[in-house]
Write a structure and sequence with these properties.
Largest sheet: none
Number of helices: 2
Low-confidence stretches: none
Radius of gyration: 13 Å
Structural class: mainly alpha
Shape: elongated
Mean pLDDT: 89
């Protein structure tokens, strides 16, 4: 594995944080039956996937 450049690490860390937070919100929203938490979680995962698709060719 090669060393990652500084901004690459920052983008990867942001993407992983958004994905993890999104999955946590989806789980909590499902357990509490709170549709607004579920929606925020889904949008967080969507944004994380878009960052992955746009930033990494």
């Amino acid at each position: 594995m090669t060393a990652m450049w500084g901004p690459d690490r920052h983008v990867r860390r942001t993407m992983l944080a958004l994905g993890t937070a999104g999955l946590a919100l989806i789980c909590v929203g499902t357990i509490l039956d709170a549709l607004w938490l579920l929606g925020i979680g889904v949008w967080a995962v969507i944004v994380a996937m878009l960052i992955e698709l746009v930033y990494r060719p």
